[in-house]
Amino acid sequence: MIISTLSNGWYVFGNVMLRHMQWCEAADLIVKGME
């Protein structure tokens, strides 16, 4: 039970980090395109 909760937490954390990095890259591209 504890292990599955931990792995689920890491899964959610990983998804959030992936989305955050994709947003940062997209924002970086937009900024470069506007310059």
Q: How many helices?
A: 1
DSSP strand content:
under 5%
- Poorly predicted regions are none
How many distinct beta strands? 0
On the 0 to 100 scale, the average pLDDT is: 89
Sequence of secondary-structure elements: H
Oligomer: single chain
Envelope shape = rod-shaped
Task: Please tell me how large the radius of gyration is.
Answer: 15 Å
- Sheet with the most strands, sense and barrel status: none
In whole angstroms, how far apart are the ends? 51 Å
Give helix % range.
over 70%
Protein name: Isocitrate dehydrogenase
Structure overview:
The longest helix has 33 residues, at 2-34. Helices cover 94% and strands 0% of the residues. The model has no long low-confidence stretch (mean pLDDT 89). It contains 1 helix and no strands.
Topology of helices and strands:
Layout: H1 2-34
Give the gist of this structure.
The chain is mainly α and 35 residues long. Helix content is 94%, strand content 0%.
Keywords:
rod-shaped, mainly alpha, 35 residues, 1 helix, 94% helix
